[in-house]
Amino acid sequence: MKRIFENLKVAFKSLNSNKLRAFLTMLGIIIGVGSVVAVISIGAGAEALITQNLQSMGTNVITISPGRAEPRGEGGPMRHLEDANTETIDEGELHLEDAIALQAKATLLNEVAPVLYGRNSTISYMSWSGQVSVTGTTQDFLTVQGYKMAEGNFINESDVSNLSNVAVIGNTVAEDYFGKINPVGEIIKINGKNFVISGLLQTVGTAGFGSNPDNSIYIPITTAQNKLYGTDTVDSIIAKLKNENQLDESTAEVKSILRIQHRIMPGENNDFSVSSPTQFLETASSVLQILSITLGGIAAISLLVGGIGIMNIMFVSVTERTREIGIRKSLGAKNRDILMQFLTESIILSLLGGLLGIGFAYLISWLVKTFSSLSPLITATPIILALSFSTAIGLIFGIFPAMRAARLSPIDSLRYE
Amino acid sequence: MKMEEKVIEIKNISKVYKIENFKVNALNGINLNVTKGEYVAIMGPSGSGKSTLMNIIGCLDTPTKGAYTLDSQDISKLNDNRLAEIRNKKVGFVFQTFNLLSRYSAIDNIELPLIYSKGRLPKPRREMIMDVIISVGLKGREKHRPSQMSGGERQRVAIARALINSPSIILADEPTGNLDSRTGEEIMAIFEDLNLRGSTILLVTHELDIARHTDRILYLSDGIITGEEKIKEPISAKDTLKNMPTLEDRISKLEENKNYEKDI
Question: I need a labelling partner for A342 at 20 to 30 A (CA). Which of A96, A405, B11, B110 fits?
Answer without folding.
Answer: B110
